[in-house]
Design brief:
Length: 200
């Protein structure tokens, strides 16, 4: 039991350091005439995401600005990512219903542009939201995220497996939890991130 707690703690620290330094942001090719404004939207979304832990109010403000610019130029991926980031900001402010609403809006934009990677990221965010009070629902969304990540976003797999392991621990399914933690640890090591390997 102590070994399991140590594994959970180590993997949690790995994810925090991994997420801090690696914010992946890929969108489909953008038509040249929109290039400048789409880059502005992408930059604002990245900036907004960076404030989520220490100033979620600023996260929301910057992401709202990104959303309005993206809306004006009909940049669906930019709108979706802005909604996702606004949802993350609301989550950190404990406004869970607003966060869920923004996540669902993000899915709608990503689905319109067939951005499965974006949709998978939002499913993971919704899983994090349900982790607070509904483990079965959280697991459902993590599994949806896992399915999409395997095909469209393999870099996200380590973090998702870690989340599934945490859920299995909370559900007292320790054998399943250890299995997911081991997969997660291997994927973090495979990412060849020096900071992760030192901590692992």
């Amino acid at each position: 039991m102590i070994a399991l707690k140590i594994i959970v703690l180590i993997l949690s620290l790995l994810v925090l350091s991994f997420k801090k330094d690696r914010y992946d942001f890929t969108f489909k090719k953008i038509p040249t005439e929109k290039s400048s404004k789409t880059k502005t939207v992408d930059s604002l979304n990245v900036e907004a995401f960076g404030y989520r832990l220490n100033n979620p109010g600023r996260t929301i403000k910057i992401a709202n600005k990104a959303f309005f610019i993206a809306q004006k130029i009909n940049y669906l991926d930019g709108e979706g990512e802005a909604c996702r980031i606004i949802g993350i900001g609301q989550y950190y402010l404990s406004n869970y219903e607003i966060a869920l609403d923004k996540y669902l809006q993000a899915i709608s934009y990503f689905e319109q542009s067939s951005n499965f990677k974006g949709t998978g990221k939002v499913y993971n965010n919704i899983g994090n939201l349900y982790l607070l009070n509904d483990y079965d629902k959280a697991l459902e969304y993590y599994n949806k995220s896992l399915i999409l990540a395997k095909k469209y976003n393999p870099d996200a797999l380590a973090g998702i497996y870690l989340n599934v392991g945490i859920i299995q621990t909370k559900k007292k399914n320790y054998k399943a939890a250890i299995e997911k933690f081991q997969i997660s640890l291997q994927l973090f090591k495979k990412a060849n991130n020096e900071e992760l390997i030192i901590q692992g």
